[in-house]
Amino acid sequence: MAGNQAVSTDMGVGLSVLFTLVAVAGAGLTFVTSGTETAAWGFAIAVIAGILAVSASHVYPN
């Protein structure tokens, strides 16, 4: 007999952690190479990864 089963996933948490680590790496790149175009790219990576980290928890709720 087939029953209803709720499937739960931790993909939102995993993606949030992944993008948070990428954001920290981008912020670190900004700090290490301050005043250059590379620092600007590091900041852009940090901001985009931060947005994706927050979005992942909303797209894949527990």
Structure commentary:
α1 packs antiparallel against α2. The protein starts with 10 loop residues before the first helix and ends with a helix. It is built from 2 helices and no strands. The mean pLDDT is 89. By secondary structure, the protein is mainly alpha-helical.
How are the elements arranged and paired?
Elements: H1 11-32, H2 37-59
Helix pairs in contact: 1-2
Brief description of this entry?
With 62 residues, the protein is mainly α.
H/E element order: HH
Major sheet attributes: none
Category by helix and strand content: mainly alpha
What would you report as the Rg, rounded to the nearest angstrom? 17 Å
Summarize the amount of helix as a percent range: over 70%
Q: Identify the quaternary structure here.
A: single chain
Tell me the fraction of residues in β-strands, as a range.
Answer: under 5%
Keywords:
62 residues; mainly alpha; 2 helices; 0% strand
